[in-house]
Amino acid sequence: QVILMESGGGSVQTGGSLRLSCEASGDTYTIGRMAWFRQSPGKEREGVAVLSKDGATLYAESVKGRFTVSGNNTKNTLNSLNLLMSSLQPEDTGMYYCAAGYSLLSVRLMTAIRALGEKEYRTWGQGTQVTVSS
């Protein structure tokens, strides 16, 4: 069993930056990929960025060039995930969730729709709030 704990959310003005972190505990050797999702008020949860165990990354079009995902992959075990968010906009406001998936298929071999889809992830954190004011 894997448990995920997010941290680093907060409030920032338009154009500012924030760094989110997610720590995984438990059977982390089973994790194949980790991802960030977000849910804005009145909208469905959407995938933001993914990191595979092999180091491959994938981003939603809306955050490309502004967000950077990274993680700690020690001894072939992915056990943490970070998201550096820059040039933040009010539309980036929402609850950000960390998620873990257990397939070893790299995102290099996946479509964005699949890699950023909720079905690929079985474990979720509680979320951390990000608020961007204009």
How much helix is in the residues? under 10%
Kindly provide the radius of gyration, computed on alpha-carbon positions and rounded to a whole number of angstroms: 14 Å
Major sheet: size, sense and barrel closure? 7 strands, mixed
Structural class: mainly beta
Q: Output the helix-strand order.
A: EEEEEEEEEHEE
Number of DSSP helical runs: 1
Based on Cα principal axes, name the global outline. Answer: globular
Task: Compute the number of strand runs.
Answer: 11
Distance between the termini: 41 Å
Q: What are the segments in which pLDDT stays under 50 over at least 5 consecutive residues?
A: none
The overall average pLDDT, rounded, is 96
List the helices and strands and how they pair.
Blueprint: E1 2-7, E2 10-13, E3 18-26, E4 33-39, E5 46-52, E6 57-59, E7 67-74, E8 77-85, E9 94-101, H1 112-115, E10 123-124, E11 128-133
Parallel strand pairs: 2-11
Antiparallel strand pairs: 1-3, 3-8, 4-5, 4-9, 5-6, 7-8, 9-10, 9-11
Description:
The strands form 2 sheets. Strands 2, 4, 5, 6, 9, 10 and 11 form a 7-stranded mixed beta sheet that branches. Strands 1-3-8-7 form a 4-stranded antiparallel beta sheet, with no helix packed on it. The radius of gyration is 14 Å and the shape is globular. 3% of the residues lie in helices and 51% in strands. It has one helix at residues 112-115, and strands spanning 2-7, 10-13, 18-26, 33-39, 46-52, 57-59, 67-74, 77-85, 94-101, 123-124, 128-133. It is mainly beta and 134 residues long. It contains 1 helix and 11 strands, in the order E-E-E-E-E-E-E-E-E-H-E-E.
